[in-house]
Amino acid sequence: MRGFLIIGNEAVTEPFNLSDLPGAGRMDVLCRCVSQALFLSHSMRRDVEVYLLLLGKPNPPKVIKISSNELRRMSPDERNIGGHIRKAVGFKISKDWVETNSGIFVAKKNIEELLDELSSSYTICYLREDGESIRNEIYSIKNPLFIVGDHIGVKKQEEDIILYYAVKILSVSKLSLMAEQCITIAHYELDKHYHENFISI
Amino acid sequence: MRGFLIIGNEAVTEPFNLSDLPGAGRMDVLCRCVSQALFLSHSMRRDVEVYLLLLGKPNPPKVIKISSNELRRMSPDERNIGGHIRKAVGFKISKDWVETNSGIFVAKKNIEELLDELSSSYTICYLREDGESIRNEIYSIKNPLFIVGDHIGVKKQEEDIILYYAVKILSVSKLSLMAEQCITIAHYELDKHYHENFISI
């Protein structure tokens, strides 16, 4: 399994205009993250989960979970993914996951509740520029969940909780990359490691 | 300098609906390629050129050139980039580059004319799944221009010309990745090489 958690600091928690994804608290960033995490050319990766933590107005926090193995009818363009997210944020929600579409779920959870749930099945890895090089550490990580901030990064309030759960702090580049680029590179380094070592993913 | 040429096999050569980028010959793929080639978090790479070869209806071929050093008012979301492309394909064009916006140019060139022009300043590298690993070859490439196909790949007609000009055939992954993922990884391997060797980019 591979997981990705993206922190949407201002991502709105109500239905939004699909023709203005940046105006919906930079929902475009989250859409690109979903696309890069799930899709290969003409196919979808298996055993990938994406979690979007939406912290924007008017009803934060909300978490959207997308599970590649059950997902249907999603394409990799921002508008299509935005449509799925818009549908999910319109649901009446509780602490328990509610399925809004095949493979897409939404719940009212804060980051602590979410990481408490995920840390039982994933090795929590926080992607931060000053971390250890992902290339040097990749061999030691089983079932990673990578946490990445959006254009704003990760605020102290969330970071303190992330650091409590994180087993590793990893860096993908000396440059400050966009969130979706970090995801692509994390996949790439994992793919390369597993292929070179003939390990099944 | 780093260059990227993306082959848009069906990308339309007339203004299109920004709310249906996939329907415009998968213009969404080209928009994501531009985004991943040019943008870092909160900034733009310097010395990057992106070339989009549009081969779709009704007036192929058209080439759009985007030069990061002069580019203004572009943001990394698909719709914004699509707007710039839509404007460019609406221009009356000739064999010579016409500037349609600061840093964006359009011309009527086929792939042979384009590669003939670019091969004087770039090392032409063709990204194909069966190529040599980019990681092993990156040290030897100065001023690379990476050629990548869209969702359809590269057809024989264009590939024959590419192979004439290509100095290297490189692979970024054993998996069949989306075009924009190949671009992100090419940047990543180049960044890593240059940073580790203290070479200015």
CA gyration radius of chain A, whole angstroms:
16 Å
Q: How many structural units, i.e. domains of chain A?
A: 1
Oligomer: homodimer
The chain pair forming the largest interface, with residue counts per chain, is: A-B, 38 and 38 residues
State the CATH superfamily name of chain A.
SPOUT methyltransferase, trefoil knot domain
Report on the structure:
2 copies of one chain form a homodimer. Chain A is an alpha/beta fold and 201 residues long. Chain A has one domain: Alpha/beta knot (3-Layer(aba) Sandwich). Chain A has 6 helices and 10 strands, in the order βαββββαββαβαβαβα. The first copy, chain A, has an 8-stranded mixed β-sheet with strand order 6-7-5-4-1-9-8-10, sandwiched between helices. Chain A has a two-stranded antiparallel sheet with strand order 2-3. In chain A, helix 1 crosses helix 2, helix 1 runs parallel beside helix 6 and helix 3 runs parallel beside helix 5. Chains A and B meet through helix 1, strand 2, helix 2 and helix 6 of A and helix 1, strand 2, helix 2 and helix 6 of B.
